[in-house]
Amino acid sequence: MNLTLRIWRQNGPEDPGAMHEYEVRGVSEESSFLEMLDILNEELFERGEEPIAFDSDCREGICGQCGLVINGIAHGPEVTTTCQLHMRHFNDGDTITIEPWRANGFPVIRDLVVNRSAFDRIIQAGGYISVNTGAAPDAHATPIPKQDADKAFEAAACIGCGACVAACPNASAMLFTSAKVTHLNLLPQGKPENLKRVNAMLNQMDAEGFGACTNIGECAAVCPKQIPLDVISTLNRQLGKALFKGL
């Protein structure tokens, strides 16, 4: 495959940045999207040009480190992580536009790399649990309704990639925050602090500069781990209880 790539280049947070166009040739349709960028970077390196900076780690769709807006869609045309997107989803001669996540909470560090430490601070705002959970053999001692266990497990699948923020017109981090609140608060160990946790994590989300949720649903549509939109309803119910109790 021969492709034209329009890629966002930015030297640093204060640089205005601009789109640059590159040609890449001989790309196998079995290559992953990141492998295609590796090929381009090797060509740039051979020409003495600065390679394109982008995030990646496990390249197995687990860590959430990679993330690009491809032709206007977070992670591209397939609902998966960027590292698991393959070039067979594109055609020979295509022009592909590649940009970083766009959000005040995710400032650009360089090119396609953004600072997502805001997610870490939202999780940290949730604090610790005060319950002694016991040793591993005691884990089955507290019965948990299967519905709660399944929902907590589903929410815990969130890898914090940030696609929900990139897809949201408001750049809201509500799906991410709700997933973390849901999987922490549904299990018995998380219940003592659950209402305080909801307030603390939401306040931190607002402090990081993410937008408000208006239930558009784009976040769930692009989530590579298919976190359902109803985790936001779970958070809102917990928030209502917290406000009722004056927390």
UniProtKB/TrEMBL annotation:
Domain 4Fe-4S ferredoxin-type: 149-179
EC top class, as a word: oxidoreductase
Top-level lineage group: Bacteria
UniProt-listed Enzyme Commission number(s): 1.3.5.1
Gene3D superfamilies: 3.10.20.30, Alpha-helical ferredoxin
Keyword list, A-Z: 2Fe-2S, 3Fe-4S, 4Fe-4S, Iron, Iron-sulfur, Metal-binding, Oxidoreductase, Tricarboxylic acid cycle
Family of this protein: Belongs to the succinate dehydrogenase/fumarate reductase iron-sulfur protein family.
Protein name: succinate dehydrogenase
Lineage of producing organism: Bacteria, Bacillati, Actinomycetota, Actinomycetes, Actinomycetales
